[in-house]
Amino acid sequence: MVGDMPYKNTHDISDIASGTKISNHKPPLLLERIYANLENTVTSFQRPLNYHLDRWLNNGIFLCNFYFTQTIADPLPYHYHLLWESFINNLVQYISNDHPDVFMLFGSKAITLRKSINETKSSVVEVPYPIYEYKEFKKSKCFCKACELTCELGFTIKW
């Protein structure tokens, strides 16, 4: 899963992209909308007790974003993501060349990574961004599509 929005608040930042600190009692809006979509479309999904997403990592779900730990309130210039762009492109290219994967690209910035993905080995699900394109995201059934594509590769996603 690759996204393109920084954290809204400093207290949300954790060591896992899109996740939050274990001590947080409420998920960031992005994660809340992802969970709501999963609850509505994937019958086996159970909302975790925390919002750290370590369970996803342990199940082989890789999470990444273009901003790493920058918050919206940080005084860094908007082009900050350019510092990470070549790294993320190379990382995605390496992963997709190494073995089959399903990439979920959240939002227009993440969708630009598609050119770096070896689609002869891997699959791509383009996802409307859950914050800015919520109505489209809500109807997208992107997690069902990711589950189907993962099954075609011989794996199972445990959300």
From TrEMBL:
Single biological process term from Gene Ontology: base-excision repair, AP site formation via deaminated base removal
Highest taxon above the source species: Eukaryota
Gene Ontology annotations for the cellular component aspect, listed alphabetically: mitochondrion; nucleus
Name recorded for this polypeptide: DNA glycosylase
GO molecular function terms noted in the UniProt entry: uracil DNA N-glycosylase activity
PANTHER family registered for this protein in UniProt: URACIL-DNA GLYCOSYLASE
Organism: Piromyces finnis
